[in-house]
Amino acid sequence: MSLFPLLALSLSVPHVQAAKNPFRVEAPGVDAVVDKEAAVKVTVVVPKGFHVYRDMMYLKVLDGNGLTFSEAVFPQGVFQPDPADPEGLREQYDESVQISAAFTPSKPGTYAPLFEIRYQGCKASLCYMPKKEELIITVEVGAGSTDAGDQQK
Description:
The protein is 6% helix and 45% strand. The protein has one helix and 14 strands, in the order H-E-E-E-E-E-E-E-E-E-E-E-E-E-E.
């Protein structure tokens, strides 16, 4: 059996490339002060005409790098009929969504906690595969002011 017909067939079939994921994640660094609550904020940018499902999202700490974070907080989404179950409702975000995780640093320094974010984006009833991304967010913690006047706020 010759491999030539198989080679010719594989060369004639166009390669299908997966659609480029139109969503992106933004996670700026954080400036914080010892013993004052601060938060990392991670934004999933949702393009116009797309949405992400709340039940397909999470933000978790993989390595706090010396910081302890609270559970991630998500804003309230919009409940829409679920295309897979039209009688049921499913929470989604039709705009960019910001997720936060609070922490209270106990020592000054530079920290690099590692997070994992997961989301699934869709347009109408066509959805992209769920996506996971790891993020390192730089946290700069200052000693704060020891001036008694600053503490009376």
